[in-house]
Amino acid sequence: MNNQLIVVCGAGGFIGGHLVADLLRQGYTRIRAVDIKPLQRWYQKFEGVENISADLQELDACRTATKGAFGVYNLAADMGGMGFIEKNKALCMMTVLINTHLLKAARENGVERFFYASSACVYAHDKQTDPNVTGLKEADAYPAMPEDGYGWEKLFSERMCRHYTEDFGLVTRVARYHNVYGPHGTYDGGREKAPAAICRKVIAAQMSGRNEIEIWGNGEQTRSFMFIDDCLRGSQAIMASNTITFPINLGSEEKVSINQLVDIVESIAGVQLKRNYNLSAPKGVNGRNSENTLIRQMLGWEPSIPLRTGMEKTYAWIYDQMKSGASKDAVVNCS
Ligand code: NAD
Q: In the predicted model, what is the mean pLDDT of residues 65-93?
């Protein structure tokens, strides 16, 4: 596949930028990277890649983006952490245009394989009311009652992939990501997710000398977090698989509470902060974890990078950004 054209949609964002880097590392020679942001605001941008700034909610842009492609990774979405998705439901749902138009264009252009980045937010609300949640199995998405806005868009787009396969023979692969984190992600501005937000808050508390941290909710809500390297490996394995023809969990099973996540970051930073709980802030469901039986069976692998290891790398990157005063939109140019 290394000489085939691979298109990464959402390449100016966190996961898309890392995927382009990983494809280059593996010797892929023809990569097209597409994102709505102007090129100077991409988180990572690489020479030797066809970098395009285009709005993939538009069908014509999707036609141009997928022309001549062998594989398409759809990682483009108007999204963010709980603070963003709880307040921007319509914007999140408008992302349905991206996947719908990409599928239509991919079919027209004879694309061989199509990957869609879904989310654990598709899972039914009543399965996530207890912090001691048992891991969410793939079947737990139905009967459907996903996260309002963002989750409905993801579930609908999953089904569009399924029906494009059933009705038109387009090979589609869908991964349900559980909280991905790592360097080169959003850490401020309102779209950041818990791991990056907590790193930023701990670093800011240290830098300012105000040894306090605000935590959204009571801190007892539980999640699992997947380091970016596991996400890249799993996404590409799912894309290449000939047997994973259904949406599958791609997440870590290492469940922690938000308080435990703060413990980890404090220990990396070597501080202990006074915790102020903001009970009216968006906090999402009470408990969510991945259940990996299926991916273990299908791939003989599952995400396994320990949270502490991934958080050390993430913390170090955010620390450097904040120390140097770099904007979150700073571009990393790589040859
Ligand atoms: P991100 O916000 O960093 O990247 C998404 C990119 O899509 C952004 O650069 C954005 O500019 C681009 N985009 C938005 N609208 C566009 C449009 N109309 N045309 C072209 N590009 C557009 O997010 P990410 O963390 O890299 O997430 C990638 C994918 O994975 C998304 O589909 C997201 O929903 C999914 N996902 C991510 C996580 C996570 O924890 N990061 C969890 C579950 C699912």
A: 95
Does the annotation mark 150 as catalytic?
Answer: yes
Provide CB contacts within 8 A for 147, sequence distance 6+: 85, 121, 122, 125, 284, 285
- Name the active-site residue from 43, 116, 150, 187: 150
| Half-sphere CA count of 126, side-chain side, radius 13 A | 4
- Residue 15 Cα, ligand 1 centroid: separation in angstroms? 7
DSSP string, 298-317: HHS------HHHHHHHHHHH
Q: Note every long-range contact of 82-88, with CB atoms under 8 Å and residues 24 or more positions apart, other chains counting.
A: 82/193, 82/194, 82/216, 82/282, 82/283, 82/284, 83/190, 83/191, 83/192, 83/216, 83/281, 83/282, 84/190, 84/191, 85/121, 85/147, 85/149, 85/150, 86/149, 86/282, 86/284, 87/282, 88/149
Least confident of 10-14, 100-104, 322-326: 322-326
* Domain covering 6-179+227-252+291-304, topology: Rossmann fold (3.40.50)
Q: What is the β-pairing status of strands 255-257 and 222-224?
A: antiparallel
Q: How many residues does the chain have?
A: 335
Spatial separation of the C-alpha atoms in residues 101 and 56, rounded to whole Å = 8
Helix (H) / strand (E) element for 205: namely helix 194-208
| Residue 327: per-residue pLDDT | 54
Q: Which residue has the least CA distance to atom 29 on ligand 1?
A: 75
Q: What is the average pLDDT value for the chain, to the nearest integer?
A: 95
Confidence of residue 330 (pLDDT cuts 50, 70, 90): very low
Question: Bridge partners of 275?
Answer: 213
* Residue written as token pair 């401020």: 188
Q: For residue 334, name the pLDDT band (cuts at 50, 70, 90).
A: very low
Whole-model pTM: value is: 0.96
Residue spans per domain, the chain: 6-179+227-252+291-304
Distance 74 CA to ligand 1 centre (A): 9
Tokens of 13: 């964002």
